[in-house]
């Protein structure tokens, strides 16, 4: 569709971009990324013929760029630039109608019903139809940007070039605009070249990426390019960390400020206990991984709560229940992990140790009335106290992988405790591996040097295993003793 081969050019005889070669397939969304001054806008203007091509070749739809007249280029290419300025006081619908100019025939450029229908359609799709009778200069920056997009689409281009298309747009209109463009692209086999500074937006919508730096093409490829942290760090000269988007299979970028002198966050916390809940509040947010009701997955948290519920508790929205309980106690649901258990909270175990220089705190509640052997089919026991809730707090720096390792180490220790106590699945009478509603949390201060491992073969993993095992033995003993009293 579009092929650049050894392209060089710029505003004067001096080349701003040079040795640029890549191909964009028809119907693809190609994002040009790179820091300010890398040559993105210059390259886009060379592709449209606005700036001269000093050397190399540009082929569009199997035809050299220089073989197209200006009118022919306007028929196949539309441009949405960063500037939202128009010299005259036109109405919005008049601005959008300008997009039909390349397709209108004759000296007087007659506006047909077909032109009007297309203009009305693109104004509705870009959410500017309600402004059609307003003066363009009266609109906000974001509204002007959408009007100019409507004008570009009114050209019915085969190629759309966007220079910072989300400039002036809020989050909602950014997503709406690009989702509409994506739909329009598929329905019309539109090829899009977009200059984007927001790498996360590029990741969500682009098919291919071209990374420019100092007028040179560093690399072009699929979205995996946005996972090359070292290359992005070098080009943008800022710390960059790539992660997976939590909902869609796309990479996302996090910026890391320049490292300051590391300050050791003290392992400081308070514990507040009632018959209804246990609340641990840390002085600083901790990096967490859990399968808790509230705050599950990987996160940062300061508040850690374990709520008591009746053994016959049932609710269609347990997250809402925990949020309501937190609100009642004036505890923020932000940066909070929330669990629930039918176990009497007084029977908890709390173990705090320093193992090989690692400060560890374990807070565990345990009931085994609904213990299960995960390797056997079983029916859910009813009216039984259950749930093992394990909270482990570490004064250490764990990578995401080490956090996962830590969950594994805690689970192995729990299973070992069940085996040593001969806790059985009530249905199969085989040794249980846990309960059907177990919940585990690992929280780390992120002090010190990062460790990538916390499995059973590591010092940290064994330390976790020790406190989980001992704490669980104590908590289950407290649970069994209460059963005898009742």
Provide structural commentary.
With 486 residues, this protein is α/β, with parallel strands linked by helices. It folds into 2 domains: 2-256, Rossmann fold (3-Layer(aba) Sandwich), CATH 3.40.50.300; 269-485, L-amino peptidase D-ALA esterase/amidase (4-Layer Sandwich). Helices cover 29% and strands 29% of the residues. It has helices at residues 40-48, 70-76, 92-97, 113-125, 141-154, 171-188, 199-205, 229-236, 318-328, 400-420, 459-485, and strands at residues 2-9, 17-24, 29-33, 53-60, 63-64, 77-80, 159-163, 191-195, 208-213, 216-221, 239-244, 251-256, 269-273, 277-290, 297-308, 336-341, 349-355, 358-366, 371-372, 388-394, 397-398, 434-435, 439-444, 450-451. Strands 13, 14, 15, 16, 17, 18, 20 and 23 form an 8-stranded mixed β-sheet that branches. A hairpin with a 6-residue loop joins β11 (239-244) and β12. α4 crosses α5 (141-154) and α10 (400-420) crosses α11 (459-485). The longest helix has 27 residues, at 459-485. The chain is elongated.
Quick description:
The chain has 486 residues and is of the alpha/beta class. It is built from eleven helices and 24 strands.
